[in-house]
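Mods, move this if it's the wrong board.
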Amino acid sequence: MNRRAIETPGAPGAIGPYSQGIAVDTSPHGASRWAVTAGQIGLDPATGDLVPGGVAEQTERALANLAAILETQGMGLANVVKTTVFLLTMDDFAAMNEVYAKHFPAPPPARTTVAVAGLPKGGRVEIEAWAVL
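Not the wrong board. Structure tokens:
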């Protein structure tokens, strides 16, 4: 198994001891490759600040950050098989879900959505993904 860190300026840099993502080749010839991302919040990678607006805008940016990480591995959101969505409040579920649904082709990935007590930098949503090529 070949395991390596994923780094791209197209997504915010890690703000702790973690990688933006990890790529794993699961076969000797790289024929099967997984990418697992760190959770992405609605940070603009150019400024390091949350994008203006609410949960819809932060969901758009979080998904753009995920896509940028996956692109480094020749993947996109269509390769995602599982996501976990963390919301500051379930009151934001409908707005997040509306944006989320626009970004994933049928069938959408498996998903878990939970409410949490807080997110980094005051974010309203965080999304992590598992993708396979």
